[in-house]
Amino acid sequence: LAYEMVAYLEAKGEEVAALIFIDSAVWPQVPLSYIDRFFDKLDNRLERGNTELDESFKDFLQNKTIRAQPTQRLLAYRSFLNKIKMEHCLKTNIYQIVADITEAEMEGRLQWKNYTTGNFEVYQGVGEHEEMCAEPYVLQNANLLKEVLQYEEKMRNQVFFLENQVVLRIK
Prior knowledge:
This protein is α/β, with parallel strands linked by helices. The chain has helices spanning 2-11, 33-47, 55-62, 64-83, 103-110, 138-157, and strands spanning 18-22, 93-98, 120-124, 159-162, 165-169. The longest helix has 20 residues, at 64-83. It is globular.
């Protein structure tokens, strides 16, 4: 959705300072395995004995009837994502803060470089995708986001002067 919003704003003539993703992949089509992987990760966390969850809540999360509603929502979200046509090449810089992922998973995150004529930069975040904005990783990733914002501001303010006229602005 962030990509679509930036494309819309740029089409209206607006300048967008930057687009910053937190572990976002470009998929030509979102595979069904995406939903299976979500529940596999949930099951693995439950099996490891997450101390923040009491036993009754674990039983609740493992109930097939309870899982039906989020499964339907994930399928609807997958359908929505698969209908998005990514036809715009943005002018804005794109920054990607990636999770702790495999090389194969990184491929989808790097695809964003094909959707901008601006700069594309990747920063290594901490935690798995689902954990990046939760304890204990949220503060480290927030600091990284702050670093990206400061870098973008510095680049936007870097101006070279020649005879009191601006001749080049680095993006």
